[in-house]
Amino acid sequence: MDEEQYITQAQRIAALQEDIILAGRATGRAPVAPDYVEHVRRILEDRYGGSAPYQMGLKVHTAIDLRLQKARRRRFVKALRTSIASAGTQGLFTILIQMQSSPS
Q: What's the total number of domains in the chain?
């Protein structure tokens, strides 16, 4: 944003020093693997229809490794912060592409 002069250099520096807080759900608990949760939600909606999974009281078990997902999320936030600090928005796009192409 500072490259496009929407914010000053001082605002950029202040923003980089703030903690990155990823948005959670209304329950106060953010899913550890939001992409995976979304994938499972879509499968359930396809199988049982629109809002049925929310009304059927389903108990869903998955094979996700939460420890691995938490580590990946920490790695992503760290890489994102480093990339933005060093290369601005261009760095953001670079790190997103790298994260998508890495196996884990």
A: 1
